Amino acid sequence: MKSVNPVFVSALYYGINKGIGEVMGSGGMVLSRVTSKAMLEFLREKGILHENMSDDEVKELFVKVLGLSEDLEIQEDEMEVSFVIVKPTLVDFLKKVTEENIKPYICPFIHILAKVYENGKDYKLMLEDVFPEGDVVKLKFKKVR
After folding, report:
1. Region 112-124 average pLDDT
2. Which single residue of 11, 13, 61, 79 has CA 20 to 30 Å from 89?
3. In sequence order, what DSSP letters do the residues of 6-35 get, joined into one string?
4. What is the pLDDT averaged over residues 69-73?
């Protein structure tokens, strides 16, 4: 089976986020939430997602099924959850938005990952910070109850 080139997908995500920022500014956050919800519904309809996924299932989804990174580590304590994305496939997208200080309104790593992970839990996740370090990106989320 032929797959889509990650450079094209990076260009697509970059273009969408840059356009949202230029046209909508901070109002893009509303679009972000609606888009993420629609993406999750689409993945559920395709049978890729299900309710209350375990950490191992979330990791398998992002690494093996969606091919978004070589590995995913999940670190959780009472106050926060961090996702360590090892060798992200869309590294060009992440580098470009970081370089240009473009807010990632639409990003599978941030919004989709958080929504999949928080499903069935007694808290929501709110992005606190992004730490790009070489071929690893750490996303730190605060638990909101």
Report:
1. 93
2. 79
3. HHHHHHHHHHHHHHHHHHHGGGHHHHHHHH
4. 96
Q: Is 80 exposed, middle or buried (0-12, 13-18, 19+ CB in 10 A)?
A: middle
Which residue is it, tokens 């356009």? 19
Sheet containing 69-76, strands listed edge to edge, beginning at the edge strand earlier in sequence: 69-76, 80-88, 136-144, 124-133
pLDDT at 98: 85
Helix 91-99 × helix 6-24 angle, to 10°: 30
105: exposed, middle or buried (C-beta count within 10 Å: 0-12, 13-18, 19+)? buried
- Using CA atoms, how far apart are residues 76 and 78, in angstroms rounded to an integer? 7
Q: Kindly state the DSSP code that residue 39 receives in the 8-state scheme.
A: H
Apex CA 39: angle with CA 104 and CA 102, to 5°? 10
Strand 69-76 relative to strand 124-133: parallel, antiparallel, unpaired?
A: unpaired
What average pLDDT does the segment 3-24 reach? 93
H/E stretch holding 118: helix 113-118
Tokens of 41: 């519904």
